[in-house]
Amino acid sequence: MSKFLLNQVVKGSKGSYRLIKSLTPHVFQAKVEGTTDLAAIKIPPANPYLFNDEKNTYSWQTIKTCPHIRSLREFIDDESSQCLVFEWMDRTLWDAKDESTEQKMKAFKAVARSCLQGLLAFQKMDRVNDYCHADLNPNNILISGFPGANPIVKISDLGFTTRAGSVDKHQARLQGDAIRAPEIWKGAAPTPAMDVWSLGVSLADWITAKAVFGYGGCNIETNFGPDVTKNAWAIAKLHKVRGAPLCDPLKEEYSSDFIVAEAFLQDNLVKDLSLREQLGQQQIPSDCISFIEDLLTIDPEERPSVDDALAHPYLQI
Fold it and tell me: What fold characterizes domain 9-87?
């Protein structure tokens, strides 16, 4: 595995990059030598499958030319300094959650449109099959020029990109627990509908400055162990917040999650308000709430497609 140090200069075919700040164990902020430009440097971890999958995803024309997906400046394939060099963006959507509701509402439609247009790039990515980002969340939606009514918004972190209908090769369920679509909880194969759901969650989380879904607030123990308990809490919360009845899982291995979730709901242990009530507390306009609710339709067959969401009346005003 390559080792990177602050102030190190990494040389590529399109420039040299001085590492000036460590952002995570595998991501650095860098200055492009001879310019005032910044770049983001991502290095491979010990197990590089997500790194390699992200690199491969950028080989597709629809991805590398999409203005709503973070641009890959270059891949440096030097044995001592292998890395992906990305354009620099100011911050993540989650980093911007504490801006005022007024500022967020001014930019809301631009954020939603940009993300949806980015998701379009995954459709027929290889000219035959639809693909899914499969990990869209407020930490990999990037935003520059915000506050402001017309920020630049781009999708990033493409390592989980998955062909629709395929069996997941990385983990039992795709998506994190706080952004996971109901059908993925049940064990369904991935489809682009899962990304529409996670965009709805990301927008709701950004507006409310909190994780609306997931196992937050779970302080109960069961005989099923912590993993099943947390999964069940997240499933119960999802259906409580959306006011929808539980359905049976598609895979037997997930049956315990749903049995415990049903018990949580029957015992009224999950106290979260409905999505409309939570958003209403933030003084979000009713038509905006309706748009988010539509993205968060429980049934993936009834959930709007990316194209349908872009044509939603709320985004046309």
Answer: Phosphorylase Kinase; domain 1 (3.30.200)
pLDDT tens readout for residues 157-204: 999 999 999 875 555 689 999 999 999 999 999 999 999 999 999 999
Identify the bridge partners of residue 28 per DSSP, sorted by sequence position. 22, 41
Indicate which residue of 135, 177, 195, 257 is catalytic. Answer: 135
The DSSP code for 73 is E
Q: Are residues 241 and 179 in contact, defined by beta-carbon separation less than 8 angstroms?
A: no
Task: Please say if the pLDDT value at position 2 is more than 70.
Answer: no
Segment holding 128, helix H or strand E: none
| Catalytic annotation present for 248 | no
Beta-bridge mates of residue 66: none
Can you give the residue ranges of every domain in the chain?
A: 9-87, 91-212+272-316
Scanning 157-192, the segments in alpha helix (DSSP H) are 182-186
* Residues near 94 by beta carbon (within 8 Å), at least 6 away in sequence: 137, 138, 139, 205, 206
Any idea what DSSP says for residue 254? G
